[in-house]
Amino acid sequence: MEQRERCVFPTEDALEMILNFDHAGIISYVNAVAAKKLEYTDGLCGRHISDVFPNTFRAAADGFETEYEFDGAVRNLVAYRKNLTCFPVEAKIIKSGEEDETYICMANDILEKEFLSKEIEQVKQEAHQAMKVKSEFVANVTHELRTPVNGILGNVREMYGDDLDAKTVRSLKLVERCCEDMNKIINNILDFSKLEAGKFTLEPREFHFRNMMDYVKSNHINKLTEKGLGFFMTVSPQIPEYIIGDELRIVQILGNLISNAQKFTAIGKISVEAVKTARVGDKIELFFMVKDTGIGIDDADKDKLFQSFSQVDASISRKYGGTGLGLNICKQLVELMGGRIEVESEKNKGSTFSFSIWAGLCEGEESADVQQDGVERMEMPASAEEISFENIRKYGTPENLKSLENTLSKLILCVEMENWEKAEMFMETVRELVNGAPREVGRIVLRLKMAIQKENYDKITAAFEELNHLLGFKEEDA
Ligand code: ADP
Questions:
Q1: Domain hosting residue 62, numbered range
Q2: Is the minimum distance from the CB of 261 to ligand 1 under 6 angstroms?
Q3: pLDDT given for residue 426 in this prediction
Q4: Are 235 and 224 within 8 A, CB to CB?
Q5: 381 and 394 together in one domain
Q6: Which atom of ligand 1 is nearest the CA belonging to 353?
Q7: Quick one: pLDDT at residue 319?
């Protein structure tokens, strides 16, 4: 033991047995694993190597005799424990040092290795089986959930008619929206489980690219306009009319990114761009960008975004909802399409999610721009717009006050129509617009927000009038 302690080797932590011996065959170092496996608590150093490998080494007057060739090859040997029982090892013994000859032996217990690889194989099989059971379970449960949700949805849609009063229509619309949200969650869970189990397959076919982009736009434009957000979509003329790809899944990725952009943006605009960035043979690379002017994401949180079930923090899920699956699904889909997804963002300034995918060219779609392949940039909305947008966020500037006045009048209209959900949405915009305002303004805005949450019409009117007065807006706006 003393001798072992004197020799300091970085091999002490190795997982295999390591023994050093000199030209006389005397063991000068053993690591902890070797001492344990050979069952020497003490005294292995100083012994002859033939005590450990008697079938390979014989003690001789000037050291040892052996047929072993020190050529670096791995060989099967038999190692003997202190109590003279033995076990097979896979060993490699090499010669080191010219004058002061030292031999280094590295060995693994073959039985243990076989046992471990059997265990690993078994664990793998168990995990595979568990994954299979899980995905079957998820498929069954989501199917069972989808049936009643669609039942409710169908019935609600049938209930719309001319003789319904406004309150009932509002309630039905709410039920309809809840069902649609529920369906989105169910679909996400199903996609996620299929992707995890490696059972997801893309279904590429020929489709009209611009029609698809128009469809994406039509899916979102109403919600974006209702929220008062600008929406810009630019498609590069270099993208052929028809391409081959999984249209449904591209719509899904874009839809998810645009929904997130809309969810996390209270004021400003959302822009979507699609450009062709490369062509190799009959394949083209498409690059998409979804840019918003929303709450942004901290650098530290960016890595978490694409993990499953991950939201930036718990307050986000409380305030904005969501399952944290969307971006993970997008990432997996994008990767299946041979591309990658990335995010650039600045806190309180906005985020840009971008992704690339490879699509097939259709026959006869040899676009005239073949020689122009390479990165092309689309014209972005004028930078003057960006500058005035900056001013909208700066409390007290004419742009900011104009925007506040507009938002407040939309807000009160929603209150009058008892559309509390939208009123809360505009309230959120007002809160962002008064960021940095004097404390007095902040206090009334808070009072207005609470009154809206409680749906207390009198308190809303009082706070609204007080706010208009304080901000110097016309009284009749109230
Ligand atoms: P969820 O369904 O919860 O929105 P996602 O995977 O789509 O799940 O998004 C995960 C998280 O990423 C969100 O909860 C949010 O914190 C953040 N995030 C996604 N998109 C944006 C965005 N455009 N702006 C700010 N944060 C975003």
A1: 2-109
A2: yes
A3: 85
A4: no
A5: no
A6: 23
A7: 60
